[in-house]
Amino acid sequence: MSISSFTSDERAFLEPNNDIISIAIVVIGFMVFAAILSKTFIAFDDNSNALESYEQAAMIAKDIAAYPPLQGSRPELISAEALDIIASPSAKEERYMFFQRFSENIDLFVEVSTDDNRYHWTIDDGTGSQNGRDIIAASVPVVIELGSNVRCVPGTITVKITQNLWN
Amino acid sequence: MKMKKRKEVNVVCHNLPDPATDMICQLIDNDRAWADLILSKTALILASVVILTAVYALAASSSDVIEKNELELITVDLASHIDSAGSIHPGTENLTVTYVFDTYAGQLISHERLNISVTGEYVTSSFEDDGNTICAARALSYRTVPFSPENLRSVLTGKFAADGTRDQPINSPFPYTDVTDLLSSTAAEELYLNTSRDVIIEQASVFVTDGSEVRELEYILVHQ
């Protein structure tokens, strides 16, 4: 079937139904437009939610990096000794005071590690289970003081917030 | 073939004197395609009405979305101010932040229609729009009590006979659940904020002692 046989065809069998075809094209176009619009909006909503939760985690991470009981000999240092105490299973009271300031709605735990991975601490209030729930994490770089202020190593504080089931 | 058939119909029609049958025959006989035109144009009009309604509904719902976004923005702004007051480590003296509601021109939601409330766990705002209530809520990161300092101290004094200041710590065994439970249950009541007045956000410490040592529980107070 060549194109000339199509253009020179004058039987006009589509002619009476022209409006149906044009309406069909408009409807399909409109549906595609609405679908793209709603998809973009859903993606935007998801992203802004994730960003908001990340900002919350980042704020808490900064707060913990400046928490006075964890400070070493200088305010910008994190004391490994204080971390040992607060992460040990017997220090219930210290951990309670550490998590007391945060709202009861937030399930969070904190991981501190040196960048060479030789030392690792987890501070967990032991209430939340992380099974199958989304976790939002934010990290801040800190300097960890091992023993004395002569031995300082770079490290990170990571705050992980377990998303509530209704989020 | 067609012409022949039509002639036969004509013959049949002309033989019948009944006016109703005559009309039907005229309709059948008519080949000017009026019915075809009317039907297809009606369908066309209906279809365009449906599409135009859909476009209009989409535009209307987008203005709803914009209003909802603005409401969320107001809520998030207040919640983040309360949170940032909590994230400051005060040292010895407590910190006070004053929050003023933003009233810039061109806002869709006027502040008179806005209901903002703070509880110990959430900042909630809502407003009525043509009978529909649109609302937004944000959870707070720090322990918050919607009280003024005097109110907080009087609640604590009423229950424990000590106001929880450094000089008068409350006697409570670890993990101080009687103090925290009392404050979280009283903080569950909503404090409705007046948007034309400043909101005062400040840190407060409640000192507790189990006999041997004094501990400091940190709270954020929100009041007007």
Can I get a quick summary?
With 167 residues, chain A is an alpha+beta fold.
What are the main properties of this structure?
heterodimer, A: 167 residues, alpha+beta, five-stranded mixed β-sheet, 4 helices, 42% helix, B: 224 residues, 5 helices, membrane (chain A)
Describe this structure in words.
The complex is a heterodimer of chains A (167) and B (224). Chain A is an alpha+beta fold and 167 residues long. Chain A has one domain. Helix content of chain A is 42%, strand content 23%. A five-stranded mixed β-sheet of chain A has the order 1-4-5-2-3. The longest helix of chain A is centred in the N-terminal third of the chain and has 48 residues, at 18-65. The two termini of chain A are 59 Å apart. Chain B has 224 residues and is α+β, with helices and mostly antiparallel strands. Chain B has one domain (57-223). Helices cover 45% and strands 24% of the residues of chain B. Chain B contains five helices and nine strands; from the N terminus they run αααβββββαβαβββ. In chain B, the strands form two sheets. In chain B, strands 1, 5, 6, 8 and 9 form a five-stranded mixed β-sheet that branches. A four-stranded antiparallel β-sheet of chain B has the order 4-3-2-7. In chain B, β3 and β4 (132-139) form a beta hairpin. Chain B is rod-shaped, with a radius of gyration of 37 Å. The N and C termini of chain B lie far apart (94 Å). The model of chain B is unreliable at 1-9 (pLDDT under 50). The chains are: A alpha+beta (167), B alpha+beta (224).
**Oligomer status:** heterodimer
Largest sheet of chain B: 5 strands, mixed
How would you characterize the largest beta sheet of chain A? 5 strands, mixed
Distance between the termini of chain A: 59 Å
Number of helices of chain B: 5
Using only C-alpha atoms, the radius of gyration of chain A works out to 30 Å
Mean pLDDT of chain B: 80
Query: Largest chain-chain contact?
Result: A-B, 30 and 33 residues
Query: How do the SSEs of chain B run, as a string of H and E?
Result: HHHEEEEEHEHEEE
Shape of chain B: rod-shaped
Strand order of the largest sheet of chain A: 1-4-5-2-3
Number of strand elements of chain B: 9
Transmembrane segments (chain A): 20-38
Keywords (chain A): Membrane, Transmembrane, Transmembrane helix
Keywords (chain B): Membrane, Transmembrane, Transmembrane helix
Transmembrane segments (chain B): 42-59
